[in-house]
Amino acid sequence: MAAPSRLLSVLLVLGLTAAACGGSDDSEQSTASPSASASPSSSEPADEASDESASEPETEDEAEPEDGVDTETDEEPEAETEPEEPAGPRVVETPLGAFEVPADPQRIVITDAGVALPLAFDLGVDVYGTWDAGGLGSPDRTLLTQEEWDSLELVGSGINPNVELLAASEPDLVIHQLISEDDVDLIQPFTAVVPFENSLSWRDDARLIADALDRVDELETLIADYDERAAALAQRIDDEIGDPSVALLRVRPDSIRVHTNLHFSGELLTDMGLRVPDDYVNEPAGSRNESTLLVQLSAEQIGELADADYILLMPVGTFVQSQDDVNASLDALQSGALWQTLPAVQDGRVTVVGAHWFFGGLRAANLALDDVESLLFG
């Protein structure tokens, strides 16, 4: 029985020696972890490299850390971040006072399809609905595309706001072009509202609307793009043509109106380095409503446009005038004897333009640039 006893003693000694050397599989895996966690090369997918490192045991050489590299990392625990509190309402300053709006409105209604709605779409804002002030049921006489129009819910129709129908749509923000002084008092009790009126500066109007939508930075980028394009066109006009004057006529069944330098269209012409004829240059008054934006001409006064180097014709009536009636008025103007005597007419420097010259706003301004480039340079 001496042999088994001796064998047992030897095995016990070997076991104690192994324990003293710390040679367990777990300790080797831990020592090798810095090498094993290295990123795979760019030519090898990361998931394939992970599978290989998990299935193939590392050799002793692979587990050995490089000289001078500290294999122990003392990572500090990440500090706990406090959850962000939801942003509170913002205050939008307008010429009509300060108005509070929600920080992140989800159901926006915009009542103006000429200026504010196109701008909202250009700024990437999701608009819930509008009311159809013209009762058109379509984007006619607006700057909206059919796709944009179809994306909107109509929450009213007609010039007078249907407050009950608007309230039923449950908007959390209404951007409203004032029709009467009572509008805000009608709407404000059940929702946040930011009113605006067209001023003598389309950029100021755009900035107010963008502030209400919390898109000021995006707007400034778009305005800078427009300004750069307008300045380039102005330089080209100066280099190749000089200092031409441009008369813009709005032709309606009941009147012919020439836009002055104070109108939106006059501001656009100034942006492009152009000017209205001298007879239509006015000084601004205290407000837009008090300023002379239009001068009405009779058929007998058409000869007063003789100083205009170029003429833009805008056949746009009111919402109660059909386009057929407007077109008939345009035909009557162009067939008149006095019209035929105008130098701009005789030299072919006349073109018909759309309602964007009347509406105002950034989208309209860019369309106006297209018109002038086409008229002056083909």
N- to C-terminal separation?
117 Å
Q: What would the average pLDDT be, to the nearest integer?
A: 80
Overall geometry: globular
Q: If you compute it from the alpha carbons, what radius of gyration comes out, rounded to the nearest whole angstrom?
A: 37 Å
Strand content: 5-15%
Sheet having the most strands:
5 strands, mixed
Number of strands: 12
Show unreliable segments: 1-73
Number of helical regions: 16
Helix percent band: 40-55%
Q: Mind explaining what this structure looks like?
A:
The chain is α/β, with parallel strands linked by helices and 378 residues long. The chain is 40% helix and 15% strand. It has helices spanning 2-21, 25-36, 46-55, 60-63, 116-122, 146-150, 163-168, 183-187, 202-212, 216-240, 264-271, 323-334, 337-340, 343-346, 356-359, 362-377, and strands spanning 90-94, 97-101, 108-110, 129-132, 153-157, 173-177, 193-196, 246-252, 255-259, 294-297, 310-314, 350-352.
Helix and strand layout, with pairings?
Elements: H1 2-21, H2 25-36, H3 46-55, H4 60-63, E1 90-94, E2 97-101, E3 108-110, H5 116-122, E4 129-132, H6 146-150, E5 153-157, H7 163-168, E6 173-177, H8 183-187, E7 193-196, H9 202-212, H10 216-240, E8 246-252, E9 255-259, H11 264-271, E10 294-297, E11 310-314, H12 323-334, H13 337-340, H14 343-346, E12 350-352, H15 356-359, H16 362-377
Parallel strand pairs: 3-6, 4-5, 6-7, 8-11, 11-12
Antiparallel strand pairs: 1-2, 8-9, 9-10
